[in-house]
Amino acid sequence: MTQTTDLRGTVPERGSRNGSGGLALAVILLGQFMAILDVSIVNVALPTMRADLHASGAGLQLVVAGYIISYAVLLITGARLGALSGHRRMFHLGLAGFVVTSLACGLAPSTGTLVLFRFLQGTAAALLTPQVMSMIQRDFTGEARARALGLYSAVVAGGVVVGQAAGGLLVSADLFGTGWRTVFLVNVPIGVALLLAGPRVLPRDEVASGAGNLRGRLDARGVLTLAPAVLLFVVPLIMGHELGWPLWGWGALAASAVFMAAFVAVERRAGAAGGRPLISARVLRAPLLVPACVAIVFGPCSWGAFLFTTTLHLQGDLGMSPLRSGLAFVPCVMAFALVGLNWQRLPDRWQRWVIPAGFALAAAGYLCIGPLAGGGPAYEALTVVIGAGLGVMPIIMTVALRHVPLGDAADASGLLLTLMQLAQVIGIATIGTLFLTAAESGGSTRHAEYGTGWALAAATLAGAACALFLARGRTPARA
Predict the structure, then answer these.
(1) 0.85 exceeded by the pTM?
(2) pLDDT class of 477 with cuts at 50, 70, 90
(3) By C-alpha distance, which of 294, 273, 20, 55 is closest to 179?
């Protein structure tokens, strides 16, 4: 997204009220960190949840996917609520909801209640996280903003790494006999501290203009048609293999197509009436945005499924403890982060080909998952190759948004972020189901890794093919 600068190169007066600019940044970045952490911290705790709650494979998938579904569907709405009602106010409201739902997740007595609370936790995250970038853009300028954005990128990348390691550490520590519950309960004291500090250090909101047109700006009809379309698509895919693919599942998939058609019609009507649809036809007409949307689906699809299935394999046939399996992901995710943060150091003539090359590298790595599923140094090195290959995903947004008009940049970036989140859900629902079915039929997770690797490779190669269209475009601008 294009950034404006200020010749002063310092934090504006309102952003450093009483000298608290650094404290304000720490508060909002810690809030962002918690939301990112809860995407990955759960993965390592899944086998322990299965034993404690007697959860099915479908239940475990919903524990992971439930958070991401509600977060993805409501992300754009959360951003618009912040613009209309105040970013500070919505940040605090989302943070309070996140604390309460984290506590509820940690105390959940059954798989069903845990899944419900995970959906609500994702809703709170969708209200909290969009405000972080908005407050950075609003309250920091010049070099101060550049530093803040750099820290923001580090938090987003580091949250995945820390989540995998912290999940293993907390589950292995088994504090007070709580087991997996600490991966949620750890948010409570941190969130309460942020709620106490926020009102003291975050600058007050200015009155939003045009708040009277709340309904049109939020596109409630779009949300009410998109949410059931996603749920009716994902839930049958997750539940089908354990229930023997019942008739209601096929009916739900058909109903999902109906709701998706209704969503398209609602969005067209909202755009024609001069409203602000969640997905604008004008935004989709921006050069390279459509191939970017398709490419950005295949990458996170394989990444989310890879984290889910590999965790079950590490603690399955390979017999790793939660701590060891969490630490096993650190080199992989660090490679992902290093590529994403340093691709601009490459010569300009190479940059536009990095995306398809990275996807192809990841696909080659996926093909070796089955043969190397016995573990050892070669398997660990393989995960690093996959992480490095998929580390090109952040470049897709840079390439696509460079050709989007400034007035549409927020909606375009919101669309890409939403697709990234939904793609993870699709990967867990489809490839995750393939893994669970193969593991059950073959009696081992190692057996399941063969078919899973081929499915992951196919998805990533499809992303590489779409990325070729981006490679033929103009070289992305340096940030």
Answers:
(1) no
(2) very low
(3) 55
